[in-house]
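Lecture 7 notes: from sequence to structure.

We start with a single chain of 149 residues. Read the sequence below before looking at the structure.
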Amino acid sequence: MRVVIQRVSEASVTIGGVVRSSIGRGLLVLLGVGPDDTEEDIDYLVKKTAALRIFDDEAGVMNRSVMDIGGEVIVVSQFTLMASTRKGNRPSYIGAAGHEKAVPMYEEFSRRMSEAIGRTVGTGEFGADMKVSLLNDGPVTICIDSKNR
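Now the structure, written as tokens:
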């Protein structure tokens, strides 16, 4: 399981011209699920993401988590995070979990993230053509793969 975490001043997900979710200060989390991912991968990445100290404290040092600042989170499914570019120029998505596995894993990740931060987490829609807008704050972008602990 992989996440790309972006510290944002604001972010939103629009589907078919309708805003599905929007947040102010917080995290936009792009989530890729692999076929061998488990509940342990969800636990690891939720805990790591929620506790990641990438927000400034009073001294301007990145020392606060999204929980510390009362920030918001949007989680967006993105199978392309599992792409392999080893051969040729056309990415292979064989490393991405199929719909039947990825959807429940995405939903569970979002549910657990909501529990971890103590507030509702915004989401996209699995498999939909989404327009994701964000104002990256910093910019700060962190990539984490649960298989590289």
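The first strand starts at residue 2 and ends at 15. Keep this in mind for problem set 3.
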